[in-house]
Amino acid sequence: MRIEFLGTADSAGIPVHNCKCEICNCYRQKGLINLSTNAFIKINDKIILLDCGIENISNIFDGKEIIAVLLTHFHSDHCLGLLRLRHSKQNITCFHPKDKEGFSDLFKHKHSITYIENKPFESFKIDELLITPISLIHSKNTNGYLIEYKNFKLAYLTDCAGIKFETIEFLKSKNIDLAFLDACYDERKIQGNHLNYLQASKLLDELEVKEGYLIHASHTTLEYIKNNKIVSKYKYINKGFFKEIK
Ligand SMILES: [Zn+2]
Ligand SMILES: [Zn+2]
Ligand SMILES: [Zn+2]
């Protein structure tokens, strides 16, 4: 199977509209755009989306079979793409955390999407994958996902301001091979709805992951890192990052 990122930025995306910071200018000059954090898994020629925040995701995967969406939460940068994907001619199951409102009129006009509410720690199978939703601390009910393929275990953990003790213990017991964790902020911000890169690095250490990466970066965080020549223990990844898992 393969995991690949379609975006790794925060909700603003990079470049931010009319922002003249060094990072946004650099992206503009190179013609680069990094949209909100969104990944996908390809297994046996089928697609499983990890979040669905990119508006034209239905076009990106036109002609491909999307079997499921593992939604972390109903913030627009993670579910905007469902507004168009719901008109698919194919039935798609969306697993999501408990949320009465959802986003926009998604629950009212479901079209091709079947919504299934997750129960933390209750695993389910999709194709050859075993998926376990877990709870993350954020401004809205949010799930991370532990994804097991054969003996390989990966964790997709966005958006996240922290993880409760029992969930940390659960993840540790799994011996995670590969983890992606929210590190939206730089070290000047120590409280909010996301982690900064120091907090995220500490948490990846605590989870004892074999390989860890930072995601959901904001342009100000990347600018701070660049200007202060900060070398963090775990690296931020960019759009296009992928891993093949045998
Ligand atoms: Zn987000
Ligand atoms: Zn900027
Ligand atoms: Zn969020």
Automatic annotation (TrEMBL):
<dbReference type="InterPro" id="IPR036866">
    <property type="entry name" value="RibonucZ/Hydroxyglut_hydro"/>
</dbReference>
<dbReference type="Pfam" id="PF12706">
    <property type="entry name" value="Lactamase_B_2"/>
</dbReference>
<protein>
    <submittedName>
        <fullName>MBL fold metallo-hydrolase</fullName>
    </submittedName>
</protein>
<dbReference type="InterPro" id="IPR001279">
    <property type="entry name" value="Metallo-B-lactamas"/>
</dbReference>
<feature type="domain" description="Metallo-beta-lactamase">
    <location>
        <begin position="36"/>
        <end position="219"/>
    </location>
</feature>
